[in-house]
Amino acid sequence: MYHSYLLNHCYIAIFSLAITASCYHQNPQITDDTKSNQAYQETPKKKEIKTFTEITEVRSVKWIPKRRPQIEAPLSKSQKAAQVGFEGKFFIAPPKTLDQIAKVYHPDAQGTVVLVQYGDSHTEAGFFTKALRNNLMKNENLLFSPGLIQANKPSPWHADVQMSSHWQRQNLLYAQDIPPYGPLGISFHTQQPNAKATLTLKDRADIPYAMVKVLIAKKYPRLPFILKTNARMILEVPAQLEAETLGNQSNQEENQNTNNHQQDNKHQQPFHQTNLYYDEYIVNMKIDEELILETKEMNYSSKNKAKDPSKINIAQKNTNPSIPTQENHFKISAKDLQNRDHQKANQSPLHQKPSIQKVSEESEVNDFENDRDESVLNEKNGSLVLLGFQTSYPNASVDADVFGIRSASADHLLRTDASAIQYLKDRKPDLVLFWYGTNSAANENLDIDQYARQYRSMLRRFKEASQQSSCIAIGPPDFGRRNPLCYLNQNQKKAYLKSPKSDRTKALLSQNRKNRVCSPQSFMKTEIKHKGKNSKSTDQYLVADIKTQEQWLSHQHSCAFKPPKPLLKINEVQKRIAQEEGCAYYDMLGAMGGIGSIHQWACADPQWASLDLIHLTGAGYEALGTDLAHWIRYALGEDDMEPVMISPAQSQ
Q1: Which terminal residue of the chain, N or C, has fewer Cβ atoms less than 10 Å from its own Cβ?
Q2: Alpha-carbon distance values, 8 to 23, 34, 117, 224, 257 (Å)
């Protein structure tokens, strides 16, 4: 009788997820917390799923990432410190802004900490985020998951995605590109069969499995595709012409959940969960496998109930306003994007050709990615939109999503479509970071009041999507600019004026670049000629069009590196608005040493900044990420000594 009682009460439906969990004798009711904290267990390989229909029969996976539980009273030292707030030399945290991340340090805390960072090219490579993640807790034996991965985003990282030539990248920075752009702001679209995206995991030979969520946008008609590894088939998903009502789908899944406890022998199989904006296909893969997504040809047979896409009226295919169509799916229309980009083109040098008088030596801050595909997608044809691979390891300490886009600024986050907001709601991060300012500072004519309004709107939008998260805004680093013609010799100047982006010009400019940045005095040489008992000194200038000392002194004065005028204003605006909107603020400019520090970092040994005086080196980013981690720990009472930013020379 007792065992019968347990069987009657042990299994419950978990709505669309419908995940079966084992129950304990002490508590026959399975809660979300007990389900999410089940240990990872090895299970043998079972029958493979071949069609999407079979997925609805399987709702169990090998493990579910453990989420950090709500900590009950008594509060820890860190939680009490978070409620009081903190104000340090380079870090300010108003009361309660660090409440969620403070739970990391509670003695009873378990589970995975989730970080999400948004930013520009400073964020893109992940050096800063990696150092922050690695130093947030003192334990040296931590396991880190790769987070959400796209092709070369971030790079280098713990995982990599390789795309075949059939895909077209869509970037929210371009008005002509087509949404959805997904959590990162960059998605990959294809309308061709046999398009492949291959996920490879790195650096973790000691971990047997990873859980991967493959995010596919709800954009219709949708091409069929398969998921497989280099060793086995996982699933096949047929073509889909229009959106299904989530209510009907949930009802179907709920009816099938009653038999979930009979599916215990299929723990290796994937399962599917969905929201209004994208589908998640969740699979377990071995670390030494490659996970491959491959599109298939659209089949218009009666069996699949598919029609010729030329006969489909996308605007009329869904009459239910609660279900997203191509028109009502996204909050920002293509017309809005075009209007915003037109306005932006008149405001910021980021969207204009570089001016010789106003850009830095390499003008990297003004460049978008160069390898984009300019071809246009026909939205009436079947397509598949890949938003990324969210990758987690069992029992990981920290998951970190790195969402950096080259040339982005804070107002670009206002362009993100609803799929990005939905992802943040689903992800429920413990800490969200925003690092912008460099590209806006490049605009000497920046309207600082308009910038303040946009920055505030951005913070509000993303904080609303993740209200439980701690939030940190990061100010821009130091930034030096001068005329790119400075200290060029005659050949270099001639080549630059003729073709500044050519390979030949780049090769010429690289020859004495460090001297031009760090030792410009080396371009003036004094020659002493002896004639009998008399000697005569003559100055020689190795710079184009410089003949006299007066010209040389004038050239030196005009070629001194200067910060862009809006830099300090942006730093102050971000600092004020972040606190007003409930975010902590990290003053990176101050932590580096203030105005002019990036020149010292670029000329130091080891080098902590790039010679473009815009970007840092990996070592520089890591030093600042470590510094922020120390400030967080100090603000929450986990470190006793106030952080001291070391110089590049001291790092040896």
Answers
A1: N
A2: 12, 18, 45, 40, 14
